[in-house]
Amino acid sequence: MKFSKRIIPLSLAALCSCAGLSWGAEAPAVPLPFGPTISAFGPAGTGFPVGKLGVLLNYQNCETDGTRQGDREVNENVRLSKKVGVVKLRYGITEGLDIRTATPLYDVHKKNLATGKGEHLGWIGDTGIALHKVLMNQAKGAPFDLAVDLGLVVPTTDVSNKSVDFVGNNAWGAGGAIGLTYSAGSHRLDQELHVYTFTEGAHDYRKPTYLRSTTAWGVAVNNYFDIGAESQFDWNASSEKNGLKQNDSKNEWYAGPKVAFKYKPWGFAAGLATMFPFARWYEANTPSEGYRVELKLSKTFDLK
Q: Origin, by domain of life (predicted)?
């Protein structure tokens, strides 16, 4: 896409960074940026305040720009319009330890342009639960923040002819993550890397093992507004059906600019990012998204 090429310099900057969310007890000397807008467990190497509950909503709207195999477009016979929401909760248990959950909700419209036939899919996916432990704290003299996650995916979906197995098919999963954060003045540089694998679930389908690298950079313009860029790379192995590999592995890299608004007295923040494909490779014929518009809303409550 011509428009995506115009934002290459800004989007490449996202390969260096990723931002986290934390409401401190004291006013910072310089304004601090809001965390990643794109959907990820986050916030990388930082923790969550003890006794506080974070309620977050990630919303992604995207549309395919053709069916691709390898790194090339094959045809434009299938069009998918996707609306995906992820409801996330975070709670600070003790200093440096918090628990978080993520439950996807999705709505997909699929249309075969060759035949004119359409299909409407969607509901709720399987829920991820993770413990997030901070190992190094930059505020206490470490060179950066470092944290690890240990997580499970638990069966929460309602499998039907309208559900999508890739999002949820009542399967168990397990995985972990590592996150690193470096802060300098009003800038944050974070990197989050996580990997998950799954058991076989409904329809004799096993979701692919995947690795995701979420990178973002944010700079606080003032106490209310941020600018930055974000990047996400996904590597998916092949899925399995009846114990047989489906030869549908894929790699995707999306990146783009973001803006954010935050209002600390209310514990509220919102971010908006526009993501474009910079590298895509598919083993099988796969409808691929031409863009992603991502919105994040966050509200923190003090339960102490």
A: Bacteria
In angstroms, rounded to a whole number, what is the distance separating the alpha carbons of residues 172 and 155? 6
Question: Among 29, 152, 167, which Cα is nearest to 107's?
Answer: 167
Residue with tokens 């509950």: 53
> Cα–Cα distance between 179 and 192 in angstroms, integer?
4
- Tens digits of residue pLDDT in 163-197: 999 999 999 999 999 999 999 999 998 899 999 99
Residues 6+ apart with CB under 8 A from 90: 48, 53, 54, 56, 98, 99, 100
d(CA 129, CA 21): 18
Q: Which residues contact 106 (CB under 8 A, 6 or more apart)?
A: 82, 83, 84, 85, 121, 122, 123, 124, 125, 164, 167
| Sequence letter at residue 232 | Q
Task: Note the pTM of the prediction, 2 decimals.
Answer: 0.87
Pick the CATH number of 2-302 from 1.10.260.40, 2.40.160.40, 3.40.50.300, 3.30.1360.20: 2.40.160.40
Report the alpha-carbon angle 251-253-255, nearest 5: 170
In angstroms, the CA 266 to CA 148 distance is 29
